[in-house]
Amino acid sequence: MSRRFDLPGLIPVFPLPGALLLPRARLPLHIFEPRYLAMLDDALKTETRVIGMIQPDSFSEREGGSGLHKIGCAGRVTQFSETEDGRYMVTLTGLSRFRVKQEVESFTPYRRCEVSWEGFERDQQGTEHDPGFNRSSFLGLLDRYFDDRGLSADWETLKDADDELLINSLSMLLEFDPEEKQALLEAPSLQTRRETLVTLIEYALRGGSGEDKMQ
Questions:
Q1: Least CB-packed of 116, 129, 145, 210 within 10 Å?
Q2: Where do the DSSP E strands lie in the chain?
């Protein structure tokens, strides 16, 4: 983003399974629960307008923890509109991933966490590139996946999109399990995210068995 500001150490978090936000990507949200309407109202009053997207973690919950994954991604509210019945249509633009340090008890109806941005400095820089990306081979794999799922695509747009937009958009949009989405989120670089995405697509095509390897 062109506008620079310090990311806050305490942010509201929106636990939502399967919802993935990545730096510089846009995530549309339909907000209607009272606690999250309150969260949005409060976020809009701040300079940063930051909301942290994070996935629930059932293992942590069973072990008596917070029930949240340790890593999420914060986004800035860059677009919103209110419906006649009081719901919000919101767009979050990804800023940076964060690591949860601890959840903070408060009087707000939504959850808030103290977070660290350390280790995710690359997220706050410019567009990331993937020098080893074989686009034609990747699109061939994607074509097989879309055909298998009965999906259609604007192939000209996919061919022309830059590496980061293509990999991150597909990571967010394709239907994977929450734990698989978490693996895509936690990938340390665009290259490792692309490699993870390829593995997940290949696995989906195999249905857990057989071979359908990308060359």
A1: 210
A2: 10-15, 26-31, 50-54, 71-82, 88-104, 111-116
* Those residues with Cβ within 8 angstroms of residue 69's Cβ, 6 or more apart along the chain or in another chain: 54, 55, 56, 57, 60, 100, 182
Question: Taking all residues of the chain, what is their mean pLDDT, rounded to a whole number?
Answer: 90
Q: Which residues of 129-152 are buried (b: 16+ CB within 10 A; e: fewer)?
A: ebeeeeeeebbebbeebbeeeeee
Q: What are phi and psi of 107, to 5 degrees?
A: -90, 0
Could you report the per-residue pLDDT of 178-213, keeping only the tens digit for each?
Answer: 999 999 999 999 999 999 999 999 999 988 543 443
Rg of the Cα trace of the chain? 18
Q: What ranges in 6-134 are assigned the alpha helix state H?
A: 34-44, 58-62
Closest-CA residue to 84 (of 20, 161, 32, 8): 32
Kindly state the tokens that stand for 157: 């747009």
Contact partners, residue 119, CB within 8 Å, separation at least 6: 99
- Average pLDDT (58-74) is 79
Q: Rounded CA gap, 80 and 89, in Å?
A: 5
Q: How far apart are CA 139 and CA 171, in angstroms?
A: 14
Give residues with Cβ within 8 angstroms of 2, minimum separation 6: none
Task: Specify the length of the chain in residues.
Answer: 215
What are 62's two structure tokens?
A: 């069973």
